[in-house]
Amino acid sequence: MSKGIYLLLFLLVSVTSCNLLDEEKPENLIPEKKYVPLLVELQLLKSYSENSKADTTTIDSLTSEVYKKYAVTKNQFHLSHTYYQQSPKEQKDRVEQAIEELKMELVSEQQDTTSTPHPEKQPTEIEK
Q1: What phi-psi label fits residue 119: left (phi over 0), alpha (psi between -120 and 50 degrees) or beta?
Q2: Tens of pLDDT along 5-25?
């Protein structure tokens, strides 16, 4: 649950600290459908790095893997993130979408752990 709190704080800071300069749309802007889950994964990774004893090499390697998974570069993400932050209302909507995705993922994980069938207790020789 603390990951969710860190994510919420990060995303709220991202929304409120938007760049007031009117920047042009980047040539290689990450589409919103890709940007939101990428933002979620990067924030989860940030939370992981803050809450674990992982070294910076490991975190950097994991970050690179996330960028590779989404076929984007660090610079491309930075430019897209800066561009999207120029519109606070729309960025707030994206943040809310990211939070909903995290909630759905959490519920799904909780259902997976509670829906695992337990083997029925077999009677022992004494109980027979």
Answers
A1: beta
A2: 666 556 655 655 544 445 789
The sign of the CA dihedral 117, 120, 121, 122 is: negative
Decide: pTM greater than 0.90. Answer: no
Token pair in block for residue 67:
């960028």
Q: Cα(first)–Cα(last) distance of the chain, in Å?
A: 45
Query: What Å distances lie between residue 97 and 2, 24, 63, 74, 104, CA to CA?
Result: 19, 24, 22, 22, 11
Closest-CA residue to 40 (of 66, 19, 79)? 66
User: Nearest Cα to 42, choosing from 56, 63, 72?
Assistant: 63
